[in-house]
Amino acid sequence: MDLTLSLILQIFYVIANLALISLGLAIIFGMMRVINLAHGEFLMLGGYTVVVATNNGVNLWFAMLVLAPVVVGAIGVVVERLLIRWLYGRMIDTLLATWGLSLFFIGIITTIFGASTSTTISPPLGVVSIGEYTSSGYEMLLIGITAGLLVAVYLVLKYTALGLVARGTMQNPDMAAALGVSTSRIYMITFGLGAAISGFAGGLLAPVTGVLPTIGAIYIAKAFITVISGGASILAGTASASILLGGINGVVTFLTGPTLGEVALLAAAIILLRFMPTGITGRLFRKSQ
Amino acid sequence: MNGMFGQFRGTLFAALLALIFTIAAPSILEFFTIITLTQVIGLSILALSLALIWGYGGILCFGQTAFFGLGAYSYAIAAVNIGGSTGAMFIAVAVAAAFAAVLGYFAFYGKISDVYLAVITLTVSLIMYSLIRRTSGPEYKIGDALLGGFNGTGAPPLNVPGNAGAVLFPEHTFYVAMVALILLYVFCGWLVNTHFGRVCVSIRENEIRAELLGYDTRAYKLGIFTVGAAVAAIGGIFFCIGVTRVTPDVFSLGQASLTIIWVIVGGRGTLAGPVLAAFGLYYLTASLGTQQVVNTSLVLGIILIAFVLLAPRGVVPGIEKLATARRAGRRNRAKERRMRLRKPRGGISEDRHETG
Amino acid sequence: MRRGEVVLETRSLSMHFGGVRAVDRVDFQLWENELRCLIGPNGAGKSTFFKCLTGQLVPTIGDVVIRDIHVAGREPHEVAGLGVGIKTQVPNVFDGLTTRENIWLSCRRWHGARRTDALTSETIERLQLGEFRSRQVGSLSHGQRQWVELGMVVAAQPWLVLLDEPAAGMTHEETDRTAELIREINEDAAMIVVEHDMNFIRRISKKVTLFHEGRILMEGTMDAISKDRRARDVYLGHRA
Amino acid sequence: MTINRRKFLAAGATAALAAPFYARLGLADDPIKFVSILDQTGGLDIYGRPMVETTKMAIDEMNAAGGLLGRQIDLKVYDPQSSIQFYTQYATQAAAGDRADTVHAGITSASREAIRPTLFRYETLYFYNVQYEGGVCDINNFCTGSTPAQTVEKLVPYCMGKWGKKVYIIAADYNYGQITAQWVQKYVRDNGGEAVETEFFPLDVTNFGPTIKKIQAARPDMVMSALVGGAHVSFYRQYAAAGMNASVPIASTTFGVGNEHRLISAEEGNGIICAYSYFEEIPSEANMSFVKRFKDRLGDDAPGLNELAARSYEGAYLWAEGVKAAGSVDRMQVIDALRTGIGYDGPSGRVQIEPKTNHAVQNVYLAELQNQSFNIIETYENQPPSDTLLVCDLVADPTQSTFKFENGLKAAGIDI
User: Comparing A45 with C39, which gets the higher pLDDT?
Assistant: First the structure.
């Protein structure tokens, strides 16, 4: 019983983890149709922000909750202004550009900080006990933060003027421009927001996984598959794909081992795409298209 | 025929240049360069295969590496078991083509949209990556061939057909690989000029129209997809012979992205461009790895970013465009001006990739 | 010539989108060598009906029969494969290819290589497309692209032709030539033309079918329809 | 398959092909060519960069001391960027292009297996200075790193004696992890213990939650880890975050070699016991001097030193000992000299080639992690490569060039 309960919590964490690493990518891909191959490096930059800040005496919570999203969000805005905005309407070319960007970030971080960086941070908040089983309190907190983040993004998109304009611009740039909205500005803000959320996620995960310049490569494939499986709707898609894929991954990992867990995740994604070629939300929530 | 269809003469000319290069290689290149060329040729055949199905067939296959890797692994496993390379090559091509036919059948007859086809093929490649890395235990054997998991498995060298003992020297393997590249290049150039190829191009341009003309677009797409997979598999064979080994990395996201990047850099709608891009990027990366001054990733990243900003149409179409503009300019400047006042050329065919 | 056999027939054809019945139990017949115009206000269901005929949509209920072959639910290429020429509403051409290549592809579906070359040249001559023969279709004007598409339909020498708004967006002069071409095509083929432009219809039509709210409101000559009150209400009602 | 160089040169028909080849054959007072091929970018850079730095240091020191045989040593470093295809490229370039006198290369077994046949074919001496799973049997290839039997054999009984007999094994899912796990199982059995579970993890897994739950359910006395790489560092963090490091201690033959002990915090790592043939903290004179010279060289940026880094340094010196003993850089003469039992006394103690396997007899240390640094708790001197010795005898057959992956396990009595 205790095992079941703590295992369920664990699977929630797997799901939250997947949603957390995918959301930034989902926003940029869903709203701008830009496949950001440097997504993993945005996560990495978030992690580095936290590690470098805490190594210099900054409070861990401040570094994770404020510094990481702000720094990476700012980097995102700069990237959008200098690079991405020249490529709108050339979706495939953004693949090449962001691939280059990904290499650039890895290279620059390795040049500055070396191949690995010592850290002193560890997950805060101690241990949560369920009977004889213990879980990391911080991991439980991450479940809550992820849920909160999804709700916050939902509220921003749904109820703020910015969200409405952004959704309109993504649907039809010409129309929005005719209404006097600066599409260029909207794209910049969207890309910055996506980057900030990736940085936020990377910062939150830094105490759990540690940071390396090359750690982005571990995330990108998984995030990509989650976003595509989710389909057109950014939030409902990311959430539902995370639940499905993360749930399958967590259960299979526990039952058979981590390798089959990974394979099960990918196989589920393929089967999903075979029967719902436009992703989960494409089939189930038509309105969100 | 001219325009898109009329490039076959150019193809033959490029093939002739490549043939001259092959013959001249020993006197212009260093010995070690020649023997390491085999793996680069393998990669460039992979680029050719994607140039065919994406550039001409309009099928953005993000996971072309699935067939490349499948070809390489099938070859290595078959060659170890048969004890000779000739039959193994045929088996490898057949395995990859059959796999592509099944995958393509589900995708095209299931009416999966362009973008999702890209993602599904990528996912297939990543699944293979995960699965093959699972096989590091000694229990994972196919016949006599140990799969080796993460470490991969050895790829036997080429031998003279019918005589498994007569193994080719690496420099001779280079000739075989180069001839294979040239033949495949000419084959692809010929294919896109056949009726079949032209219909594939028309499907790229406008699938609904092609269908309304009475062409079964699913069958054509499946056809060119399968041919592309077979070509990619041949690339995989030469790649693993060149490396002497095949590892799961052939299926990785990195290799998959790189394949797309060759076609973008070389230019969509040409066959020679992506092939040259594969060569160029390989030697750029390889030469960066010989220096100790700056971080390799950093330099490569900057070059790619600069490229996408400065040469958006890819190298070969960019050069072609320059050349055409100059020639046309000499012939009739006034007419050119009139045309430019209307719509920008080619904009519409590019737009297709953004929808979906 | 008049009243040979029925070449195209729909039997209680219905197309529902969610709760909306875009086409509602339509029984329709087209006779050999007939030229029929489908008219109706926006949203009357004529374009949906057209797409059910061409295989672009699978009807919810009912059947489409072309020369005794049931085609409802078949793929568009199977419909076209019966010798049916189809032109859709927006100019549906191969933008990246030249005019000549566009038309060549249409001919080649039916003929060998040599016959195709001859037929392609013939079609280009007939439609006076020679000037744009080697131009990429994407760089042509809207009306010119419509003509290229008509050329593709003609080049295949179909016995049944389905046209959706062939004169849309054309200049006055182009419209005249289109009307002439349609009459020419009709000498060898039965036709269905979906059209908005009443003047254009007057010039080509013999019999007109008026759609309203997914059903056939009435059929008759253009003169008869334009005198009918119900027909005027349908149009006026929507204009208001 | 071997190209005989003399035959090659004699053959007039191939003269055109060989032209750039023999033009590069060096004169007597040309610098000696030493090539290093190690990943400095990509996922393996955490291992490769320290190895390159110590290699550079070794060559600089040798040159400062007057070189070898009166000739300077020219070090050429290639970065294969964590990609197997570039290993083949650079190995061929080193052998057939640079005409290297020795090549020190490779981190993963995959990279070693990609270049070993090439270097054998082109008769270029090859050193592989990395801890690996054992089983290489190649006259041309000296493997100086520790192998499982050397480290696991000491670590398992020590830790079982200290913590208890129920062992939970977790390992990276590739050859090294698989084989090491087999050896761990064998030594657990041999010492009267029980391996309750063995789990393998793909190298990109970062979420160990489900496994930690399984460990909690299985209640072992200790966890034996052969996890590898940047992603797997997460395990130690998540394990500590679940409060497990206090109750079930960890032993490892892989932790620390990628500087893992500095990537996690002190509290998370305290108490982990590891076995290697080198630790930066070895209190010997030779090592303290080595560490000091290294830190002086690189200043604050100096990476931590581990077995791979130290052995790269020692591997270069071991080769130099061979050259000195042979009085020549000729490949076969150096190979023969190295196999006579000469050794090098380096920071890790004495390293000496065992002639049956071309592997190294070396010291093995056990150390416990406290505050991000290792305290040496046991030293075992002159440990032979007993696993590879079971399957390889280059004295009986000095023409071999193979990798006996399965046989090593079979000979050890491990079922496969």
Answer: A45
The mean pLDDT value for D231-254 works out to 86
Residue B286: list chain D partners with CB under 8 A.
86, 89-90
CB-neighbour burial class of residue C198 (10 A; exposed 0-12, middle 13-18, buried 19+): middle
**H-helix segments, chain A:** 2-32, 39-55, 60-62, 68-82, 91-113, 137-159, 161-171, 173-178, 183-209, 216-230, 234-256, 258-275, 280-284
What pLDDT score does B101 carry?
94
Domains and CATH numbers, chain C: 1-83+159-240 (3.40.50.300), 92-157 (no CATH)
- C-alpha span between D309 and D324 (Å, rounded): 23
Distance from CA of B151 to the nearest CA of D (A): 4
Q: Is D312 on the interface with B (CB under 8 A)?
A: no
Please check whether residue B118 touches A, CB under 8 A: no
ipTM of predicted complex: 0.81
Q: Which CATH code of 3.40.50.2300, 3.40.50.150, 3.40.50.1100, 3.40.190.120 fits the domain covering D149-276? A: 3.40.50.2300
Chain A positions touching D232 (Cβ under 8 A) are: none
Phi, psi of A269 (to 5 degrees): -60, -40
Cβ B139–D416 below 8 Å, yes or no?
yes
Confidence of residue B224 (pLDDT cuts 50, 70, 90): very high
Domain ranges of chain D: 5-146+284-362+383-411, 149-276
Query: Of A176-180, B333-337, D204-208, where does mean pLDDT reach its minimum?
Result: B333-337
Q: Which residue has the higher pLDDT, A97 or A116?
A: A97
Give mean pLDDT, residues B278-298: 82
Q: What is the secondary structure of B74-130 as a DSSP string? A: HHHHHHHHHSSHHHHHHHHHHHHHHHHHHHHHHHHHTT--HHHHHHHHHHHHHHHHH
Q: How many cross-chain Cβ pairs, B to D, lie less than 8 Å apart?
A: 125
- D304 close contact with B: CB closer than 8 A: no
Chain B CB contacts of A108 under 8 Å are 295, 298
What is the structure's pLDDT at D228?
85
Nearest chain A residue to D49 by CA: give it. Answer: A115
Lowest mean pLDDT among A245-249, D75-79, D367-371: A245-249
Residues D276, A252: Cα–Cα separation, whole Å? 35
Separation in Å, CA of A54 to nearest CA in chain B: 26
Give me the pLDDT at residue B191, please. 92
Asked whether residue A1 carries a pLDDT value surpassing 70, the answer given is: no
Minimum mean pLDDT range among A169-178, C32-41, C79-88: A169-178
If interface means Cβ-Cβ distance under 8 Å, which residues of chain B face chain C? 1-5, 195, 198-199, 201-202, 204-206, 208-218, 339, 342-343, 345-349
Q: What is the pTM of this model?
A: 0.83
Partner-chain residue, chosen from C92, C134, C141, that has the shortest CB–CB distance to B208? C92
**Which residues does chain A have within 8 Å of residue B295's beta carbon, measured at their own beta carbons?**
107-108, 110-111
**Are B112 and A220 inside 8 Å of each other by CB?**
no
Query: Which of B2, B3, B214 is closest, CB to CB, to C80?
Result: B214
Q: Choose among A96, A111, A228: nearest Cβ to B308.
A: A96
Contact assessment for residue D353 and residue D360, using Cβ atoms and an 8 Å cutoff: yes
Contact in structure between C129 and C99 (CB atoms under 8 Å) = yes
Q: Which of B30, B36, B167 is nearest residue D89 as measured by Cβ atoms?
A: B36
User: Closest-CA residue in chain D for A4?
Assistant: D213
Is residue A4 less than 8 Å (CB to CB) from chain D?
A: no
What separation in angstroms does the CA of A27 have from each of A33, A162, A166, B353, D188?
A: 9, 14, 11, 19, 51
Q: Tell me the CATH architecture of domain D5-146+284-362+383-411.
A: 3-Layer(aba) Sandwich (3.40)
